[in-house]
Write a structure and sequence with these properties.
CATH architecture: 3-Layer(aba) Sandwich
Number of helices: 4
Strand order of the largest sheet: 1-2-3-4-5
CATH topology: Aminopeptidase
Helix content: 40-55%
Largest sheet: 5 strands, mixed
Length: about 130
Amino acid sequence: MLVKYRDDFKKNAMGLLSYVPGLRDVNRLDNEFSWYAISSTRELLLWRDNNGHFIALVGVEHTYGVLVLRYVSIMPEFRNGPLLFEVLDALNQCYPNEILMGTIAGQKIVNAWRRNYEQRTANQIK
C-alpha cells in the first residue's frame, strides 16, 4: 500500500533513499528531502507491506498531466519479485488522470511495467 511521506517516516525514508545511487551521503539525503518539501508538485511515497514495514520508496513529480517517476527504491531482498510492478500499479491507480512517465534513467522501468500492465489487462478481458 502506498503511503504519503510524513516527517515521522523520515528514518525509514532515509534508509530506503540510501539505496538510490548518489544519495548515500547524509547531506545529499537532507537536500533531497528539502527539494521535495519546497514544492507541492513533488511527492515521496512509501510502500508499506502487509506487516506494516516500509519496504519501498517512490519519488514522483506532477507536471502538466504527467506523473514523472524520478526513482523507485526497494529493499534488496524484495527487488527480484513482483513488488516493482505492484508499486507502479498503485501509482497508476492513485493518479489515474496523469500519464506515468520516467526520467531518462527510469523510462525503461516504466516501459517494462506498461507492457506487463497491458498484457495483464488484456488477459483479464479474455
